[in-house]
Amino acid sequence: MKELEEYSGKFDPYVKLHDFSKDALVKLLTAAGKLYMGLDGLWVAAMRKKFGDRTAFDYDKEIWQTGTLIELRRVTEALNIKGNDGAAVFKFLQVDPGFGVWFDLEFDLKNENHGIMTVTRCNPLLMFERNQDNDLQKVVCEEIEVPMFQVVAEYFNPDMKATALKLPPRSSDGDIPCQWEFKVEAKT
Amino acid sequence: MGELKDYSGPLRPNVKLTDFSSEALARLVVAAAKLYVGLDGLWYNLIKERFGEQMACELDRELWRRAEPFEVNRTREALNIMGSDVASFLKFCQCDPGSGVFMDMDVELSDEDHGIMTIKRCNSLEYFERHGETVLQKNACDIDVWGFPKAASRFNPDMKVTPLKLPPRKSKDEVACQWEVKIEKKT
User: In chain A, what residues touch B11 (CB-CB under 8 Å)?
Assistant: First the structure.
């Protein structure tokens, strides 16, 4: 049977995900990734309305302490990503539905223990900038992402450090959103 | 360069999602769908722990009222499911990251205005049963009793979705739930 480029045609009661073309699956994956991150945004918005900004932000930080570990487990299992070096971290970040699937990223792996990731387009940041929601932007980028990338690094290697080399706010639209260094620090 | 069955090999700095095989992409779609629904569970449990189950239920219902249009529209747009008949709604259910992607379901189209959807295996229900979460189970199923008809109405305002069977189950051999989808012609 020919693979489905979309699902505008005839209904198939027995359709399976792998009946779809890779392009169609990528579209569905991107949709699922955006729904996943968007759901958190809706929860934070509901919590801000009900309990105020600080409570909402603190709870969101708590959610991602657990949520990040679940995300790591599900994605690494799905694609059998193993290893304890910078390459393993970058492979996870490239295909993560909560991140690389719908962000524009560049990776520079200098050696197995050292790499730089540059986010060249970040949809949530564009939304924060559009809505001038500086408080939420600061919480997400500084209070959630900074510890989250450290959790990601340590999941692969307890001696790996994640350091933000650049964070928002941006000085212009041409500026990158953020840049991160991942480095395995040899024990002395 | 062959397509990637998984990502156990070397890092490809410029890898594209389409470099992966369909099976690998399907596994990633399922992972994303489980993360999506699972994130709601994390929030629900945190609110329940701090503010009680009533508050958790109240916020969760409000949450899905806001999330439902995004789920329907993003999925329809991703796969271009734009019809207004029962088949189109069933196609959406089969591919929906919030349901069909990670649930085991049968869909039967009796005719263009009538179909039955049977969820034979529901991971969420199995979690509720395993943990004795009866209030959470009722809350989640109540959201579906509201959500499926609401989603169907986005396809066709005359489309109705009625539960024929809902949890709780008497045994694990029973189906999780069953729904009738029908377009009622205006007379």
Answer: 87, 90-91, 107, 109
Q: Are A6 and B79 in contact (CB under 8 A)?
A: yes
pLDDT, mean of residues A47-69: 96
Which residues have CB under 8 Å from A133's CB, separation 6+?
A: A127
CB contact under 8 Å between A35 and B74, yes or no, is yes
- Nearest C-alpha neighbor of B40 from the set B22, B21, B61: B61
Asked if the model's pLDDT at residue A16 lies above 90, the reply is: yes
A94 neighbourhood in chain B, CB within 8 Å? 15
Query: Of 3.40.1350, 3.30.1380, 1.10.1450, 3.30.70, which CATH number belongs to A17-184?
Result: 3.30.1380
B80: contact with A, CB 8 A cutoff: yes
Instruction: State the total domains in chain B.
Output: 1
Interval A59-97: pLDDT, tens: 999 999 999 999 999 999 999 999 999 999 999 999 999
CA distance linking residue A102 with residue A3, whole number of Å: 24
The pLDDT of residue B1: 65
The ipTM of this complex is 0.95
